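Lab notebook, bench 4. Still working through the backlog of constructs that have no structural model yet. Next entry is a single chain of 324 residues. Request: give me the structure tokens for it.
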Amino acid sequence: MTTMNIIQAIGSALGHAMETDDRVVVLGEDVGKFGGVFRATLGLIERFGAERVIDTPLSEGGIIGAAIGMALYGMRPVAEIQFADFIFPGYDQIVSEMAKLRYRSGGHFTCPVVVRTPYGGGIRGGLYHSQSPESLFAHISGLKVVIPSTPHDAKGRLLACLEQDDPVIFMEPKRVYRAARGEVPDEAYTVPLGKAATVRDGRHVTVVAYGAMVHTALEAAELAAKDGLELEVIDVRTLVPLDVDTLVASAKKTGRVVIAHEAPRTCGYGAELSATIAEGAFLWLEAPIGRVTGLDTPFPHTLEHAYLPDASRIVAAARDAMEF
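Model written out:
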């Protein structure tokens, strides 16, 4: 075991995958000699060469399109998009081609592409470097959407994604890229997709979160505990496929649910979580399901602290739920 942050865990996963499977290639802007803007691919070009660690032009549509072509020819490309905010020039390729190739070919072709991209706030990057567009991908049939919150999860789930025959959008919470640290096995391992985790037990209110918001939810749980309010924290981990059973079981246990995410409230993924929990646990709910989210505005630069949900807002929503 080695203590790693999320960046190091991702680099370790990519190294393992490329060592054991020569079909795995990495491509994206500055992923080679520069090691990526956040250094997640640092050292890979020295180990595996420029034919497998490919610095591309500044063309997200080209990156995604090239990755699709590689996958159709039997390779397993990992395409890095520097920031999730930059992914939209390649969105048509993802939605119209990548997500539909297995279906449109009647199962004759698969498209095993992993698209890695950092998302969310926390670095004061402003409106073009801080967005959380996860719901735009969760809505598209044919895509899997994975968001880790810890180094252990990041390595194990990225390796699991590389075993999939279908495309995966692997979104990395950059706010905790280096802040989240933990013990990670040195060897290769996988963490199955489609399974949420109960990261803190509680009996009063369930808080459902993913990515960096998991750490905020745990901070809120510590804060609430000082007043005797026990929050149960669920890390969704995989948005698609979603682990409905774990969410519903926790909602039935506590009878109260608060959902936290960074994206804007309207049509955010929390709306899907809320509907899913209501469908499965309606008769057990003691209060309306609350949502603590980003604002329905473009992501601000100087007011990032006001935009992002914090522990105090989650605790306030939990206390509101207890009023019913």
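Notes after review: The domain at 2-184 is CATH 3.40.50.970 (Rossmann fold). The radius of gyration is 19 Å. Flag for follow-up if needed.
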